From TrEMBL:
Protein name per UniProt: Uncharacterized protein
Matches recorded under PANTHER family: CXC1-LIKE CYSTEINE CLUSTER ASSOCIATED WITH KDZ TRANSPOSASES DOMAIN-CONTAINING PROTEIN, CXC2 DOMAIN-CONTAINING PROTEIN
Lineage of the species this protein comes from: Eukaryota, Fungi, Fungi incertae sedis, Mucoromycota, Mucoromycotina
Top-level lineage group: Eukaryota
Organism: Helicostylum pulchrum
Length: 139
């Protein structure tokens, strides 16, 4: 494994032709912290990866709750794309990332303020990245 990989912008990626992707997007169970899908990001993180993840989750279960770092920005678009989410799903910004949002956003989307989320923080994939970073730096 190469520990020199850094997720960078497309401009920086052009300078270094070594990697075709510039990051990884993941989907996992927010409650249990288990990653379910990983996607290579080749053009910057966009809503499209979140939409692919929601589409994948809806294929196996009719009702999903969505936790995403910027769910506050894409909730309406998610519901217009996937009408089955309207009224039956809850949305939360992952706990760690919520503190970078405005107070009004936190009041609406922080998982501690939404019934049913309990102490779920949605940061399981971040824990995986942290572990892998430590593991890779040891090799």
């Amino acid at each position: 494994m190469d520990n020199n990989f850094k997720a960078t912008s497309s401009n920086n990626r052009k300078l270094n032709q070594r990697y075709a992707e510039n990051g990884v997007f993941s989907m996992g169970c927010a409650r249990h912290g288990i990653p379910e899908r990983l996607y290579n990001i080749s053009g910057g993180e966009g809503f499209k990866y979140a939409f692919v993840c929601v589409n994948h989750a809806l294929a196996s279960t009719p009702n999903v709750n969505v936790m995403y770092d910027i769910v506050c920005r894409c909730k309406n678009r998610l519901e217009s794309t996937f009408p089955q989410l309207k009224g039956s799903s809850r949305y939360a910004v992952t706990a760690f990332h919520a503190y970078a949002h405005t107070a009004s956003c936190q009041a609406l989307f922080h998982p501690r303020y939404i019934d049913g989320f309990g102490h779920t923080d949605g940061e399981g994939c971040e824990r995986i990245w942290s572990f892998l970073d430590k593991f890779v730096s040891m090799t």
